Amino acid sequence: MHSVGDSEQRRGIPRLVSSLDPTKLQLSPEEGFLLSRIDGQTSWTLLRQIAGLAPEAVDRCIERWLSEGVVEVDESKSADAEVPSTVEGGKADAKPVDYMSDPRIDTALDIAPELQAQILEFSESLDRSYFELLDVPRDADAKQIKRAYFSLSKVYHPDRYFRANLGEYTLRLEQIFRKLVEAYELLSDPNTRAEIERTMGAMPEPEPEPAAAESEAAAAPERKLPPRKLTKRQTLERLRRHFRLPPQILAERKLRASHFYDAAMVAAKRERWHEAAPSLRLAIAFDPWNDEYRKRFSDILSRNYEHRAIKLLDDSDGSVDPSDKLEALRLLEEVLIHRPADPEVNNRAARVALEIDELERAMEYAEAACELCPDSAEMRLTLARVLRRDGRREKAGSVLKEAARLDPENEEVQRELQKLRR
Amino acid sequence: MGRVIGIDLGTTNSCVAMVDQGKPIVIPNTGGYKTTPSMFAISPDGKRLVGHLSKRQAITNPANTLYAAKRLIGRRFDSPEVQKAMSLCPFHIVRGENDDARLEIAGKVFTCPEVMGVIVREMKRVAEEYLGEPVTQAVITVPAYFNDSQRQSTKDAGKIAGLEVLRIINEPTAAALAYGVGEEQEEKIAVYDLGGGTFDISILELGSGVVEVLATAGDTFLGGEDFDRRLVAHVLKEFHETDGIDLSNDLMALQRLKDACEKAKCDLSSLSVTEINLPFIANDESGARHLNMEVTRETLEELVGDIVHSTMDAVQQCVTDAGLTPADIDQVVLVGGQTRMPLVQQCVTNFFKKAPHKGVNADEVVAMGAAIQADILASHDDSLLLLDVTPLSLGIGTFDGQFAALIPRNSTVPTRKSHMFTTTRDDQTAVKIRVLQGESTISDENHLLGEFVLTEIPRAKAGEPEIEVSFEIDSDGIVNVFARDVATEREQSITVNAAGTLSDDEVAQIIKENEEYELPQ
Asked: Do the domain assignments include residue A277?
């Protein structure tokens, strides 16, 4: 789960005050980098994640610059102006779309990641009132309702993406569209509309903003990405074919992608994987054809997962929650998808699995670790512990003897041997 | 990726178009004609003849020339429409293995999708010759009132012709697309389409680049051919009275008469009187006899007046279905050759109190619309979107012979609806689900699309088990039905493969057989 924190207050798009000469400012290289990211296009929310600084530090910087008159914030553009607003006349949604960190975004599909985020968000908020669904005021007349329905249909009707590879989004689009039809039909009929207004009148006004984190948590568990049938190369070919963009837009996107990539590399250099991964994801979103970005992505993504797992397992405050351990194991397994032959990760996964009694998985990872790194006493120790827990004491003993031979000094191995003899 | 084409697969004539540099253009055939007769014949020496070639020899080879197969496609052999056609057509109609109607010429039996497939292939060939490159994908139009079987069979025809059918769309919708939408103003349009074999009326709403079908009605068995037939009957009767000769059993004479009457009918759209002149139509003791008769526009109008007026009932129904009155309609569009008839134009004008729109050629507008939709789909054009509806109510038959509609007609697709049903007897362990399409409350009066059985329902008192039946029509118009026993979670589903249509294997078999005819030209 990613944390949204107080990002909801960080709305709008900061831009440099035009009369200003930035070279006159006294800035650290980090601050300089952040300033260079402020382009009047990237929202505050995104800046917090791509600047290579802690989000709080970004806030502090921008707030300082605001008070110094270095930057101003364009409130009229909403934070999610990042998502191309194709809905004509629809008012900008105030909720920031934190789509970089959503694992359901699949850049291999034929629809842009921005649109995927938009579809995800819409399909998970279908329980809103019919007026909210169509984004019309409660006193909207029939014409307004129809206009809203037509313009939303132009975004969400499955025909818009005819024969495109949409993965699970096909179903989501159909679901959204059916709901739009329902809203339109019910609100267009004066009788049903009156009925709806009566029931709504009896209810309190809708809550201003449901927490984004909550709505995602509710929908996340049953998600499963469909199997990919096309190779990446084929998919990219199709992407090119279906969504030919005008060259200047393409160039613009590439430029923005390179900014995000730079930010990702700065963060990666400092091993701030949790900042590097979303930035790189954005870079790929803006320039899906760049093989360099993709090559780096797998590595950075797995580092990020590993980093998060280690953080979860950090027991400096005394205890680690079992649910955190489970989450850590899941993250380590994600890492293994990208780096299956990393003995350290296998070993770590085996230990976590053992701690939460996932013996089968523990065995698998411990064996893999030993195979990958036959000279390590540490890995054998883990395997021996798993074997002992599994009741295979004899086998555990022989593994431990081997470990002792490899590293006679290792006290842990000696202690384990004694345990086994008891 | 090659070009995508739009095909108006008509009862009497077909037309093919494509979008070139943003504009729809109709593709002329090698003879320079923009429409091609939907006819297929086998000559006495076994050659397959299509289109104009087929029509040209039809007079001398009437028993081996197929036409108007569109009227039979997707219908059951026992349906009144097929029986009616049998009494009128010079070729043989026989019962097929799936209870479908098949056509027999030159000792060979053809399925309707096969015959229509030959026409589609011809249209494909016309396009390929014009473009100089292979064409593999198309949008094909059907009358708005076509049911699922008829649509599936039309898709099969495309498949048999070697085309991937991207979408089947309704003819009136295609017409509306071709009349130019995407302009900002919102309007309601009535499309009155009276073609050779079918009649449709649809009310559409256009605005902000979206075409929405509000309602549609019509008759798949009413068209210009009925006008011809009335005139033929009239001339036969007159000739019998004046010359004492009955031509109604003479195939060759009938075919000549039919052609002459069709021409006379067209002439009477611009002239008030014309002549039917058929020398050497028959022989008797006194030698060769000629048919020479004057026909006036008044006579024709008297003969077909009731047909024209009956179409207006459907128009009224459709306007009411759309929740409108005639005065709400901003534009009236006429489609189909038969709308050139002054009587038709007059009736439509009287009903809507406004003169119909005349711009695009009524014969070509549907194909142009199909080409536009093909282009929208294939190029992911986001300036235009067609919101289509299902033309007939979909539902299931209940135990007392009633029809329970789950998806009412004119529902926007894709759509999905569910309903709970139960058993009618104690300890009933299986339920048969009959999927039907139509507007009658009596299930037998509707068109049976298919049936399946949900089994292993736990024994219980009648009325206790809960069976949820869901209908789904996806954006391709394909009907899926799911039935689920709520208690056991047991689920059964079918993709409706309608009675009267071909199975996938049969289609594959026909494609294979046809390859043998694909000789180098």
From this structure: no
